[in-house]
Amino acid sequence: MTTQHIDGFILTPSGFIRGVLEHDKGRVVRIDGTSAPEYDVRHGAQDLPIVLPGFIDTHVHGGAGRDTMEGGDAAAQLAKLHAKHGTTSLLATTMTAPLDEIRHAMRGLAELCVVRPEGGSYGTIYRVLGAKPERWVAQTDFTNDEAVGYLADRLARLGVEDELVRAGAVAGSTVVIGPGSGVVFDWEPTLTSTAELITAPRGTDVRLDDNRRATRAERRSEYHERMDAKAEARAELQREREAGLWAADDEDAIGPAEPGTEDDDR
Length: 266
Fold this sequence. Notes:
By secondary structure, the chain is α/β, with parallel strands linked by helices. It has 3 domains: 1-53, no CATH class; 56-112, no CATH class; 114-221, 2-Layer Sandwich (GMP Synthetase, Chain A, domain 3). Helices cover 35% and strands 24% of the residues.
């Protein structure tokens, strides 16, 4: 864990605090401090940073000289510019245009690839979403080692491995490609990924090791067992609440799944 911290005025759901925000690979892991009046933030910040949540923009046509209607990598490039200025989520928006132009723009958006950590009671999985990786795994014969190695190389060239590293994945982490149950496997970094360069001895390739790995069917079965166990746990909590075993203060414990959990496949 490579935790870093930011010292300053931090906006939380309860208001500003003067304190420290700790983060690891882009994810907030802890916020600690004391309440700070907004007047102090506005007039006493001086050299201290003001830390705010990322902005969400639901209507974005372009940026960085690019336009969503261009298709290709336009959406990825404009998203990078908006991220530099604090917008961490956006909805790439098209213009009224002939159907062929709309389809061209949508094909460009479909090629975008997203790596999303999904944490839960049974550990973190890393979900990969995108037209290319989902199409590639559908085309791969997982009984053929050469085909599997070729898939790994294609994912690395697409940048999936670098995104997995940034999301916190390590060798052996569970990765799911596609929505829902998708294709489940244990991630083995290639030599070009940051994780491999850090963890593997010089001149070795862990993909060639003769280690016993769970089969695809075994990994899928384990994944479904975790999901079933979680669903049963939620149902049990609901039954206990209806039976009056939960006080009103415990209501949040059985509320809807938060974004980023295994149940958030929207």
